[in-house]
Amino acid sequence: MGELAATAGGGVLCTIGLGSCVGVALVDDDRGVAALAHVVLPDSTPHRRRGGAVETPGKFADTALPLLVERAVGEGAGRRQLRAVLVGGASMFALRRGGDAQEVGERNVSAVRDALRRLAVPVAAEDVGGGSGRTVRVQADGTVRVKVAGGGETVLRAPGAGRVRATSRPTSPSILRSAA
Amino acid sequence: MSVPAYTPLQRDALAELANIGCGQACTALGALLGRVVDLSVPTVQALDLADAVEALGPAEDVVTAVVLPTAGDMEAAVLLVFDQSDVARLGALLGVDPADHEMAVSAMSEIGNILGANYLEALMAVAGIAAEPGPPMGLTDMRAALVSSALASSTAALEAAILIDTRLSVEGEECSIAFVLLAGTDDIERLLQSVGLGTEA
């Protein structure tokens, strides 16, 4: 939770059991670089300590994404070749009382999209929303696989533009969308 | 958002508070089931959330979790995690057909409600904090997805957890239930202060 990592070459990055959290993968297929963040909350502002420092930048959408781009580029990815894949942001427990209508999963997804827009990183594919937990595995060649609880693994994104082979799962009411 | 390093004495106090809460929870469950319920609390740990998710067991295993938020002076929540084998065992005690998943989750919500509400009430009474348990929510999914979402969805986006591993035995039927008190470090501090063991002067 709240961690981020990058790999170049043969590595696989994995986040197990995303609920309302969002797994954000950045991939550069040509250079074989992938990075993955596990975003827990949309906004770091209420969680800043005195002096404005954020103890766990990987946990919040606004602080995790710039750092993730930096890490991917640090591993040799081309800044303009980066594509994002979003997984998670399910609606699980609704514990907040009162007027806060939007659930944390939904807010995470929109905060991640905003952060990506600011960083000018296009979204290549996503499997977000719904009511089920997901596990995401990202290979350095740009392959992204998603697994839901009690279900099999599906390829959400294959390496290379225009070769997305997302298959919908009948058991999951999530939105499955690819834009390559 | 790391959890402060509690002294052995503070940890004992948290364990004792947990024991009192679990004791009352187990008495209430016994009354519901009309059976003798024994409960032991082998371990209590105060952890930050990422560590708590890890400590609860294999992240991808499918489990049923019940969450009760608190309403009042303390923004906390109790999370109970049941393995699927325990769901079947406890459900059978309430006469639920194990094939009926929806009923099983509903039965777990009821058992979670009784355990969680009584646990919270005992804890709040000892600590002198005016808070009450809210309605329970039960879900079945990957363990890490349930636990992390319960944490992220709570009002304060809680950063600390007190993890209590309990063994529950209902007339010889053994179940292992994880009780997790999701609370901010400030709230854990309040609990400790209420028994005269606060960190801050």
Automatic annotation (TrEMBL), chain A:
Q: Where is this region: Disordered?
A: 159-180
Q: What is its EC number?
A: 3.5.1.44
Q: What class of enzyme is it?
A: hydrolase
Q: Show the ranges annotated as biased composition (Polar residues).
A: 168-180
* Classification via Gene3D superfamilies: 3.30.1330.200
Write out the catalysed reaction: L-glutaminyl-[protein] + H2O = L-glutamyl-[protein] + NH4(+)
Q: Does the keyword Coiled coil apply?
A: no
Protein keywords: Chemotaxis, Hydrolase
Q: Which PANTHER family match?
A: CHEMORECEPTOR GLUTAMINE DEAMIDASE CHED-RELATED
Sum up the protein's function in the record's words.
Probably deamidates glutamine residues to glutamate on methyl-accepting chemotaxis receptors (MCPs), playing an important role in chemotaxis.
Describe the family membership recorded for this protein in Swiss-Prot or TrEMBL.
Belongs to the CheD family.
Tell me the HAMAP family matching this sequence: CheD
Q: What is this protein called?
A: Probable chemoreceptor glutamine deamidase CheD
UniProtKB/TrEMBL annotation, chain B:
The CheC-like protein domain extends over 10-44
What residue ranges are annotated as transmembrane? none
A Pfam family the protein falls into: CheC
**InterPro entries annotated for this entry?**
CheC, CheC-like_sf, CheZ_family_phosphatases
Q: Keywords in alphabetical order, please.
A: Chemotaxis, Hydrolase
- Family matches, as Gene3D superfamilies: CheC-like
> Key word Transmembrane present in the record?
no
Q: By what name is this protein known?
A: Chemotaxis protein CheC
